[in-house]
Design brief:
Layout: H1 27-48, H2 54-60, H3 65-88, H4 90-93, H5 95-113, H6 123-154, H7 159-188, H8 191-211, H9 224-227, H10 231-262, H11 266-272, H12 274-293, H13 298-314, H14 328-346, H15 349-359, H16 366-397, H17 400-442
Helix pairs in contact: 1-6, 1-7, 1-8, 3-6, 3-10, 3-16, 5-6, 5-8, 6-16, 7-8, 7-11, 7-12, 10-14, 10-15, 10-16, 10-17, 12-14, 13-14, 13-17, 15-16, 16-17
Transmembrane segments: 30-50, 62-85, 97-116, 122-143, 155-176, 188-212, 233-259, 265-288, 300-322, 328-347, 368-390, 402-424
Pfam family, one: MFS_1
Main location: membrane
């Protein structure tokens, strides 16, 4: 299974822009797809089990709403740092080794997190939550950064399609995590969800050692700073930031809001969270296939999805100045809208950044893909840091309704800025094309010799 992937198999191609039907997958590609799907599923189910019950459990242990947000936020900031460093040095470390070690670290930390209920309440509990969660974030960053880069390398001409298919497993992990975590917590207590799922994640390690291919590559001299000198990439990064900020905000605050507002149990809160993850899971493959087949639609998918996300967050509470009473059915419907628009907005971002990087002269190899993957993970983590902390502060000092409205405002600004950019760029591109055609016509001889 240690077959190296040829670095030059994509020369003179246009990554993520092909409209041709994808060729039949090789055995190695199928095995890699299964492997990465298992990573996405097992990692996300372990990540998402905290939502329904951990905030309430942490409050019982002496943590305030702000501290709960910081616990979620420290995971994101460590993920950010890890994604940048690991994305830069993915070639030196090795993509396969990085993924395997990331899985192993995450599994051990998940098990340890399940034992924290035995720690005395107060500073000891809070400190260990920060420590274990931070190390877990580094493992998660390693696994996801390498899996994104390997996927883009092995499936160069249909990145969005493959990522959309893989996001089914990401969404499935997000779907099963909250209800499974809530049900096991209600039935068996705090420890069992973490111990069980941590062991499942640990079992993924030998499987991926056997299945994953070895990818040989040369390091690149390009940097994240050069990647961020392009306006389009910066705007797409802001889009990614708003999406993850919204999800981080919901992770830290939605369960407490639903329990207090509608008097629901943690198990029912987990079912409500299906309204967010199920539409995302179902929409992702379709969105990925469509944006790969018609790459020109990616920009407007991001704009339309951002607008829909803004509407979803503003009506989630709903925002107080609308004077609409909070209702459970409206909450579930708006979570569904946010989940669907998340798939519409998020899936085109990764192939768009890859395409832009290659157009700007970056090397067509694993090193560039690792940097793009690391940048994506870092910006996503920055949003996951901002969302719980700022959302928790606004919720604590104002209300959940106002905090959700702020998240909607961020999504609206991202969609607005991106729309302005694309509208401004279109006349320029048309002018360049017309100039090119005019120059060609002028250089064409009147008579053929």
């Amino acid at each position: 299974m240690e077959q190296p992937v040829d670095l030059h198999q994509r020369e003179n191609t246009a990554p993520a822009e092909s409209t041709d039907p994808p060729p039949r997958m090789t055995r190695q590609q199928i095995l890699t797809l299964i492997s990465v799907a298992s990573v996405n599923f097992s990692s996300m189910i372990c990540y998402s089990i905290l939502g329904p019950f951990f905030p309430n459990e942490a409050v019982k242990k002496g943590a305030s709403q702000t501290v709960v947000g910081l616990i979620f936020g420290c995971y994101a900031i460590c993920n950010l740092i890890g994604s940048l460093i690991l994305g830069k040095y993915i070639v030196e470390i090795g993509a396969k080794f990085m993924l395997i070690m990331g899985l192993f670290v995450s599994s051990i930390c998940t098990i340890l997190f399940g034992l924290l209920d035995r720690v005395p309440a107060g500073p000891a509990f809070i400190t260990l939550c920060f420590l274990v969660r931070s190390i877990d974030a580094l493992g998660f960053a390693a696994a996801m950064t390498s899996s994104f880069a390997m996927t883009a390398k092995i499936f160069p001409n249909n990145v969005a399609t493959v990522l959309g298919s893989l996001e089914m497993f990401t969404g499935l992990g997000l779907i099963l995590g909250p209800p499974v975590g809530g049900w096991f917590y209600q039935s068996f207590g705090y420890e069992v969800p973490f111990l069980l799922l941590g062991c499942v994640l640990l079992l993924m390690v030998p499987f991926n050692i056997y299945v994953l291919p070895k990818i040989d590559a040369d390091p690149s001299k390009d940097s994240f700073f050069r990647l961020l000198t392009h306006v389009k990439i910066v705007l797409i990064c802001y889009v990614i930031f708003t999406l993850s900020a919204g999800l981080g905000f919901l992770d830290a605050t939605l369960s407490l809001f639903a329990i207090e507002k509608f008097n629901l149990s943690p198990g029912y809160v987990g079912l409500i969270m299906l309204g967010l993850s199920l539409p995302y899971c179902l929409a992702s493959p379709l969105m990925g296939y469509f944006t790969d087949k018609y790459p020109v639609t990616r920009s407007w998918f991001m704009v339309t999805g951002g607008m829909a996300t803004a509407i979803g967050f503003c009506l989630l509470g709903p925002v107080p100045f609308l004077h609409i009473p909070s209702q459970l059915w409206l909450l579930v419907v708006m979570l569904g809208l946010i989940g669907f628009s998340l798939g519409m907005t998020a899936l085109p971002t990764f192939p768009e950044i890859i395409t832009c990087a290659f157009e700007r002269g970056f090397d067509d190899g694993l090193s560039t893909l690792g940097m793009v993957s690391g940048l994506f993970g870092a910006v996503w983590s920055l949003g996951m840091f901002y969302g719980p902390i700022v959302g928790g502060l606004i919720t604590q000092h104002l209300s959940f309704e106002w905090a959700a409205a702020v998240q909607g405002g961020l999504a609206f600004l991202a969609a607005f800025f991106l729309a302005v950019y694309y509208l401004f760029q279109r006349p320029q591109r048309q002018s360049v094309c017309e100039d090119g055609r005019r120059q060609t016509d002028e250089n064409t001889p009147l008579l053929n010799e």
